[in-house]
UniProtKB/TrEMBL annotation:
Family statement: Belongs to the class I-like SAM-binding methyltransferase superfamily. TrmB family.
Name of the protein: tRNA (guanine-N(7)-)-methyltransferase
Coiled-coil stretches: none
UniProt keyword Protein biosynthesis present: no
Stored InterPro entries: SAM-dependent_MTases_sf (IPR029063), tRNA_(Gua-N-7)_MeTrfase_Trmb (IPR003358), tRNA_methyltr_TrmB_bact (IPR055361)
Amino acid sequence: MTEQHRPIRSFVLRQGRISEAQQRAYEQHQARYVIDYAPQLLNLDVAFGRQAPKILEIGFGMGGATAHIAAEHPENDYLGIEVHTPGVGALMRLLDAGNIDNTRIIQHDAVEVLNHMIAPASLDGIHIYFPDPWPKKRHHKRRLIQPPLVALLASRLKPGGYLHLATDWQEYAEWMLEVLRGEPQLKNTAEDYAPKPDYRPETKFERRGINLGHGVWDLVFRRV
Ligand SMILES: C[S@@+](CC[C@H](N)C(=O)[O-])C[C@H]1O[C@@H](n2cnc3c(N)ncnc32)[C@H](O)[C@@H]1O
């Protein structure tokens, strides 16, 4: 079965509550920041209006870390993918408030975006921070990090491009390490887990995990 027909998704769409401010931001800033999903290749340089390193992020949540990284690195362009509407509104507010112009958003399942919109060997980096751990064994199949997806991610990286994952769930960290080590297109930058790269700030879910007494594991692999 190909990825685009994958029936099991890594998220459950609970639209939850969108605050008035998020809704207003959504309507006001959509045209500036949102790229509509379409099952056709996206020319990233055209989408961002320049040639610059392109970093993709999957599941940015409320977007705090995304906006922080983008503001600190104006030399890069960031494409954030998230399915959760309040999070998309929240990130747009942060981008507007910080006058951050090197970030764009696609609100859609990242697996489909990767399959249809992102060209092979077109990304300089990929960030996936604190993806849902789906702790119950019968839910492990919903985990985003699976061998076929990791092969797809690796194929979208340029040679030398990096894949940076972080989790606060030890058993998922071990699973990630095993899956990434098993992908022949990728090479670990560390012996096993990597020191936290300086550019990654603490994320919202990371703080939640730390408050629960969890550890944090970063993994940084490069495309060979
Ligand atoms: C646990 S949250 C982490 C959010 C953020 N990275 C952080 O650390 O605070 C995981 C996020 O990934 C999003 N997500 C999960 N699967 C996704 C997919 N296939 N495509 C896009 N977003 C996805 C969820 O909606 C959720 O907001």
